[in-house]
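In this section we turn from sequence analysis to structure. A common task in structural bioinformatics is to predict how a protein folds when a small molecule is present, because the ligand can shape the pocket around it. The inputs are simple: the amino acid sequence and a SMILES string for the ligand, here manganese (II) ion. Study the lines below before reading on.
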Amino acid sequence: MRVAALYDIHGHLPALEAALADVDDDALILVGGDVAMGPWPRETLERLRALGQRVLWLRGNADRELVHPSAPREGGPPQELAERVRGQLSEEALAFLDALPLTQTIEIDGVGRVLFCHATPRDDDELLTRISPDERWLDAIDGAPERTIVCGHTHVQFDRRIGSKRVVNAGSVGMPYEAEPGAYWLALGPDVEHRRSGYDVDAATAAIDATGWPGEWPAATPEEATELFERIARERA
Ligand SMILES: [Mn+2]
C-alpha cells in the first residue's frame, strides 16, 4: 500500500487539483483534516467523496468547529468564516464531517504501520511544531504503538525523530506556511517524501476573490508561523 497524505486542504480547490494531479493512480489518499474550511467547501468535499473507497478521512479541528462551534480561540478559525462555510454545506455534508475519525492507522510498503492524526493522536488542536521540545512531543505521542506518526495542523512540513518515534508533518495543501507557493503534501511508500505541487497562484488568488471570500488568504514564512504557534501554545499552557 502507498499513501498520499493531503492535509489542511482548507477548501482550496485549485490547490487540491494540483496535488491530485501529482498523486500516483494506485495510491490511497489520506485526507488529514481541515478539509472544508475555505473558499470552496462543497466542491472540495464533493471532489474527494467522488473518489470513493480510495480516500480515507480524518476530522480536523476546523471541521469540528463547523459542526460544533466553540468559543473563539487564537489560532482557531475566525467565527465569521466558519459561519460562511457552514452556510454553504448541507446537513448531510456536516453530518459526514462530524462522523469522521480522529486517527487512522495504515500499513505502508517499506514504512510499516503509520498512525495518522490531525494535530496529535490525543487532540485535534494541540500546537506542536518542528521546534517544540521533545518532552512536549513525548507527552502527546508516547502512548502510540506506531513508530511513525503523521500529523498536520500547523501547515509547515517537517520530519523529526522524537525518542524512538519519527514524526512527520505532511504540510498543508491549501494554506501552506512555506517559502514557496504551492500545494504541500506527503507521499508514503516505500519512502517518506515531502512533496510540493505547483499551480498558478495568481489565477487561484483571483478565483478565491471571485468567490467573495473575505480578506487575504493567510500566508507566512515557516519561521513566522512556527514562532506564532509556539507563542500561542505557551499562552494556552
Ligand atoms: Mn488547518
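The chain has one domain: 3-236. As an exercise, try to locate the residues that line the manganese (II) ion site and compare them with your own expectations.
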